[in-house]
From TrEMBL, chain A:
<keyword id="KW-0472">Membrane</keyword>
<comment type="function">
    <text>Required for the export of heme to the periplasm for the biogenesis of c-type cytochromes.</text>
</comment>
<feature type="transmembrane region" description="Helical">
    <location>
        <begin position="91"/>
        <end position="115"/>
    </location>
</feature>
<protein>
    <recommendedName>
        <fullName>Heme exporter protein C</fullName>
    </recommendedName>
</protein>
<dbReference type="InterPro" id="IPR002541">
    <property type="entry name" value="Cyt_c_assembly"/>
</dbReference>
<dbReference type="GO" id="GO:0015232">
    <property type="term" value="F:heme transmembrane transporter activity"/>
</dbReference>
<dbReference type="GO" id="GO:0020037">
    <property type="term" value="F:heme binding"/>
</dbReference>
<dbReference type="GO" id="GO:0017004">
    <property type="term" value="P:cytochrome complex assembly"/>
</dbReference>
<keyword id="KW-0812">Transmembrane</keyword>
Automatic annotation (TrEMBL), chain B:
<keyword id="KW-0472">Membrane</keyword>
<comment type="function">
    <text>Required for the export of heme to the periplasm for the biogenesis of c-type cytochromes.</text>
</comment>
<keyword id="KW-0997">Cell inner membrane</keyword>
<keyword id="KW-0812">Transmembrane</keyword>
<keyword id="KW-0201">Cytochrome c-type biogenesis</keyword>
<keyword id="KW-0813">Transport</keyword>
<dbReference type="GO" id="GO:0005886">
    <property type="term" value="C:plasma membrane"/>
</dbReference>
<comment type="similarity">
    <text>Belongs to the CcmD/CycX/HelD family.</text>
</comment>
<keyword id="KW-1003">Cell membrane</keyword>
Length: 247, 79
C-alpha cells in the first residue's frame, strides 16, 4: 500500500502509466460520447412536456456533472498537496483547472439556451444557476492565483487553500434544487432511486456522461504530462525521453 | 428514429436553433481544448529539446575554449 502511494507520487512512473492509458481513454471517450449523443439526438423519444429542446440534456448534464466532480477531485488533490506535499497532486490541480473552467462554461451556456424555450428566459438569479456561476469564478480564480505566484511551492500551497475554501460551494450546487424553490428541475439521476425517465432517455444520457468522463481522463493525463515535462526538465529521464522522441 | 425526415430532425419542431447552437458550441470548445492541449504538450517537448541542445552547444564551446587555454604555454622568464 505505502509502496503504491510512493509510486503514485513519482512523476516518472505516472508519465509511463499515462502514456499507456491515453489511447484507451481517448477511443473509449469519443465512442461512448458519440453513441450517447447520436442516440439522444435522433432516436430518444420526445419529452411530453418540453418537446425537443430537452435533447440539450445529453450535453448539459454531462458537462455540469463533470465540472463539479473535477472540483471535488481538485479538493482531494489540494488536501494531498497540503498534508503530504505530493508533487503530482499539485500537477493535477494545475492541469485540470482550465478543463473545469471550460466544462462549467459549457454547462452554463447550454443551460441558458435550454432555459429560453423552456422557462422563457436565458438567465435568472436562481440558486442553482448562481452557484454554478460561482463555480466558474472559482475555476478562474484558481487559474489566476496560480499564474500570479512565481514560486512553485508557494503557488501550490495558495492554490490548494483556495480550492479547499471553495469546496463549500459544491454541496450548495447539489442541494440548491432541494433547499430553495428554484426554477431549475431536480436532479436527473439519483443513486438511490430508479430513474424516472424511460430507458430510451437515461441510457444515452449515461453513455454521454461516461464518455465525457473518459475524455476528461484523457485530457487530464495529457495536460499533466505537459506540466511534468516542464517541471522535471532537469532530470535525466525527461532528457532521455525528449531526445529519444527526436531520433 | 424519433423524426419522420431529415428536415424534421434539423427543425426539431422549432427547437432546432437552440439544440444545434448548444451542440455546436459544445463541439467547438471541446475540440479546441483537445487540440490546444495536444499542441501544448508538443511545444513543451520542443522547448525541452532546444534547451538541451543549447546546453550541449555551450558545454562543447566551453570544452573547446578550456582545452585551448590549457595548451597555452606561458613563458616565464627564468633570469
Amino acid at each position: 500500500m505505502w509502496q503504491f502511494f510512493h509510486k503514485l507520487g513519482s512523476p516518472k512512473w505516472f508519465f509511463g502509466i499515462a502514456t499507456r492509458l491515453m489511447p484507451w481513454l481517448l477511443a473509449g471517450g469519443v465512442l461512448l460520447l458519440m453513441a450517447g449523443i447520436v442516440w439522444g439526438l435522433a432516436f430518444a423519444p420526445k419529452d411530453y412536456l418540453q418537446g425537443n429542446s430537452y435533447r440539450i440534456i445529453f450535453i448539459h448534464v454531462p458537462t455540469a456533472f463533470i465540472a463539479q466532480s473535477i472540483y471535488i477531485m481538485m479538493a482531494v488533490a489540494a488536501v494531498v498537496t497540503l498534508v503530504w506535499r505530493m508533487k503530482l497532486a499539485d500537477v493535477f490541480v494545475k492541469a485540470v483547472a482550465p478543463v473545469g473552467l471550460v466544462l462549467t462554461f459549457l454547462a452554463l451556456f447550454t443551460g441558458a439556451v435550454w432555459g429560453k424555450p423552456t422557462w422563457g428566459t436565458w438567465w435568472i438569479w436562481d440558486a442553482r444557476l448562481t452557484s454554478m456561476l460561482i463555480l466558474l469564478f472559482l475555476y478562474g480564480g484558481v487559474i489566476a492565483l496560480d499564474r500570479a505566484i512565481n514560486d512553485e511551492k508557494s503557488a501550490a500551497r495558495a492554490v490548494a487553500i483556495l480550492v479547499l475554501v471553495g469546496v463549500v460551494n459544491i454541496p450548495i450546487i447539489k442541494y440548491s434544487v432541494e433547499w430553495w424553490n428554484t426554477l431549475h428541475q431536480p436532479a436527473t439521476f439519483k443513486l438511490t432511486e430508479k430513474p424516472s425517465m424511460p430507458a430510451d432517455m437515461w441510457v444515452p444520457l449515461l453513455l454521454s456522461v461516461l464518455g465525457l468522463y473518459l475524455l476528461f481522463g484523457w485530457l487530464a493525463c495529457l495536460r499533466m504530462q505537459t506540466e511534468i515535462l516542464f517541471r522535471e526538465q532537469r532530470t535525466r529521464w525527461v532528457k532521455d525521453y525528449v531526445m529519444a522522441g527526436r531520433g | 428514429m424519433a423524426f419522420d425526415s431529415f428536415s424534421a430532425f434539423l427543425v426539431m419542431e422549432g427547437h432546432g436553433p437552440y439544440v444545434w447552437a448548444c451542440y455546436g458550441v459544445f463541439f467547438v470548445l471541446m475540440i479546441a481544448m483537445m487540440v490546444w492541449s495536444v499542441h501544448r504538450r508538443k511545444a513543451a517537448i520542443e522547448s525541452c529539446r532546444r534547451g538541451y541542445e543549447f546546453q550541449a552547444d555551450r558545454s562543447e564551446q566551453q570544452a573547446a575554449r578550456g582545452s585551448a587555454a590549457s595548451f597555452t604555454r606561458v613563458n616565464v622568464s627564468q633570469d
